[in-house]
Write a structure and sequence with these properties.
Elements lengths: L3 E5 L15 E6 L8 H8 L8 E4 L5 E8 L2 E8 L2 E5 L1 H6 L3 E7 L4 E5 L2 E5 L4 E5 L4 E5 L2 E9 H6 L11 E2 L1 H17 L8 H19 L11 H14 L8 H8 L3 H7 L6 H18 L7 H7 L5 H12 L3 H10 L2
Antiparallel strand pairs: 1-2, 2-4, 3-6, 4-5, 5-12, 6-11, 7-10, 7-12, 8-9, 8-11, 10-13
Helix pairs in contact: 4-5, 9-12, 10-11
């Protein structure tokens, strides 16, 4: 296929430093394609363009790009001619719900994100929510960036919608830009087993960059209740059996007050009641599993109950049967 090649890493990296199975880098260039055929060839072969944007060249088209899959995060380096990029409601409705971060290394761009106008100078970063409409023109030049699935950004505490069209100055985005360039250079030294962790480092660096920008209203961190509830439930589920799963520790980990946490779970009787009910449900599922050999006391200990009697008392109140009765009923129904 003209212009496409799969190669790991960077040719300039000494062979002794290469990982045994380096992260795959997907490279594409139109350099060996006839000028009149370049744009159509790019649209037909290059991943991630069609479903995201409709595009229109603003000068003779050319592109050289690299795409790397770092877990769920897509990392891209591109040198492309001037173009118009449009994401309308039709494309939004198709899906691809993610947030993109792009730094222009030596080009400029300007556009509209939702109702917000933005201008991006060389060295600046722009954030675009693919769950909303956008339109922008980019001058020819190099850019580096990545896209994060919305669920990952949300779980990390970002209010994705509020970031749409945000521009970070070269000074504000310097740490993020440096990190991306260093990751690109170092890719040959990492294997596929490291890909997801490298991707996570991009998201972590974005969060630190936003916090380091130190803007008055801390845009991007003004979580709506549904987003915070999702993060809290995930945190509880991941530490369900831990003795450290307390309201104090949850507040510290999530960065919220006790009153905010209480309001989130008011309909469930409060945070502690929600944690208790989740632990009881986990115990019930363990008892109903015929392949689970755990004793009731072991289940109680694993899920954070003080002992088997404590589990039995709460289990009886919640499900109107004892853990022993639940297990016996499950065995009889097999």
């Amino acid at each position: 296929m003209p212009g496409i090649e799969w190669k790991p890493g960077n040719k300039a990296t000494p062979e002794r430093d290469l990982a045994s199975h380096p992260v795959h880098v997907y490279r594409y260039t139109t350099a060996d394609i006839a000028p009149s055929e370049r744009f159509d060839a790019w649209q037909g072969h290059w991943p991630n363009v069609g479903p995201l944007f409709s595009t229109e060249p603003l000068e003779a088209f050319r592109v050289s790009s690299e795409l790397v899959r770092l877990g769920e995060i897509g990392f891209m380096y591109t040198d492309i001619s001037s173009q118009r990029w449009k994401r309308d409601k039709r494309l939004v409705d198709i899906g691809r719900n993610s947030i993109a971060v792009a730094v222009n290394l030596d080009g400029k761009a300007a556009g509209i994100a939702g109702r917000n106008d933005w201008v991006q100078m060389p060295g600046a970063a722009v954030l675009v929510d693919h769950g909303q409409t956008s339109l922008h023109d980019s001058a020819g030049g190099r850019s580096i960036g990545f896209s994060v699935p919305r669920h990952l950004a949300t779980e990390a505490g970002l209010d994705v919608a509020s970031l749409h069209g945000m521009v970070l100055s070269p000074a504000e985005s310097a740490m993020l830009t440096s990190h991306m360039l260093q990751v690109r250079e170092a890719l040959p030294r990492f294997g596929e087993e490291d890909a997801a962790r490298l991707g996570r480092s991009m998201l972590d660096m974005l969060i630190l960059t936003l916090k380091g920008a130190n803007r008055g209203e801390a845009p991007g961190f003004r979580e709506d209740p549904a987003t915070l509830l999702l993060r809290t439930r995930k945190e509880i589920q991941e530490h369900l059996g831990s003795p450290g799963l307390t309201i104090t520790n949850l507040c510290r980990k999530l960065g919220v007050s006790r009153s905010t946490l209480h309001r989130l779970f008011e309909e469930s009787g409060g945070v502690q009641a929600y944690i208790r009910d989740m632990r009881l449900e986990a115990a019930r599922q363990a008892l109903l599993n015929p392949e689970n050999p755990e004793r009731i006391g072991d289940i109680a200990e694993r899920l954070g109950f003080s002992d088997a009697a404590h589990l039995s008392r709460l289990f009886k109140a919640r499900f109107d049967e004892t853990p022993s009765d639940c297990r016996a009923r499950s065995m009889l129904s097999r």
